[in-house]
Design a protein that fits this description.
six-stranded mixed β-sheet; four-stranded antiparallel β-sheet; single chain; alpha/beta; 299 residues
Length: 299
């Protein structure tokens, strides 16, 4: 009996070894590493918000397929139309994929869909509840070691949306360097300012205001007065480093420096009394002002 049991165990071990050899464990070709909701993980209600997802191709073969983001009930019933992005990821590479859903006041369940061979893969996420007020951010270089400024969310400049409608949740942007952007992002940022955005420019580590190229011409200091008007937006020039501003002073700065109409009213000024920069050569009301696609495949 004991010999039969040993033989049985030996045969079982060989059997399961053969199973693992012939049918190795399935390795996921695509892994989801990170999801960032809005700007600084803060969503704004009744706006189009960027949702940015870090995707990795863990295999030696290129990945090229549609990735879809779908809002669902907790019972799995789909809500609305899925947002989609046809995405290419080289072997063993990572890529940020960005979607632009319109959000209301509710926290929602979302599911990401993609194809792996002939199989459908999914991963679920739960979004934070959107807030009613717009967001203030500090644009930072990717993987930078910028000092964390209390009260201001940091946002990597390489994830800044290239579409004007997706930056509507922004209220104010703090900046102390020249972002390394391609034309679409440069245009989007300047159009956002022209359409009512607020920019705070601070000195760089060398103690100088950033020297912007011609494409950012309105951000170059060409007036002795601050702030200046650009379209319906406002640009503030601060002769100090952002990291040197005490938290209380920064809090008061954010509270005090508001949109053009509010600034004029609080200072009892007329619009003609406010320093104005020349209008851009392009028309922000028409160029790149609508979302032409519902998802963006970010490099």
């Amino acid at each position: 009996m004991k010999t039969n049991l040993l033989n049985s165990g030996f045969h079982s071990a060989i059997y399961f070894s053969m199973i693992f050899f012939l049918y190795p464990q399935i390795v996921e070709a695509i892994e989801i590493h990170d999801i960032r909701w809005g700007f600084g993980d803060r969503l704004v209600a009744y706006k189009i918000n960027p949702v940015t997802i870090l995707v990795e191709n863990t295999t030696s073969q290129p990945f090229e397929s549609e990735i879809r983001l779908q809002r669902e009930t907790f019972r799995g019933q789909q809500i609305g139309i899925a947002l989609s992005s046809t995405t290419y990821i080289a072997p063993f590479e990572k890529k940020w994929v960005q979607f632009y859903p319109y959000l209301t006041e509710s926290a929602d369940n979302w599911k990401l869909y993609w194809k792996q061979g002939n199989d459908q893969r999914t991963q679920s996420f739960f979004s934070p509840r959107p807030m009613p007020s717009a967001v203030t951010i500090q644009l930072v270089q990717p993987d930078s070691l910028s000092k964390v400024i209390p009260g201001i969310k940091q946002y990597p400049e390489d994830l800044f949306p290239p579409i004007l409608g997706a930056v509507d949740p922004l209220n104010e942007v703090f900046l102390d360097h020249v972002p390394k952007w391609e034309k679409s992002r440069r245009n989007t940022f300047m159009q956002w300012v022209y359409s009512g955005g607020i920019v705070h420019l601070f000195e760089n580590p060398n103690g100088e205001l950033p020297a912007f190229p011609e494409s950012y011409a309105p951000l170059n200091m060409n007036t002795t007065k601050s702030p200046v008007q650009y379209g319906t937006g406002v640009i503030y020039f601060h002769r100090k480093k952002l990291a040197d501003v005490p938290p209380l002073e920064l809090k008061q700065l954010i509270k005090k420096n508001t949109h053009l109409v509010d600034y004029l009213q609080s200072h009892e000024l007329e619009k003609d009394d406010f320093p104005q920069l020349p209008n851009p050569s392009y028309s922000p009301s028409t160029e790149n002002s609508t979302i032409n696609s519902i998802a963006s495949d970010e490099d």
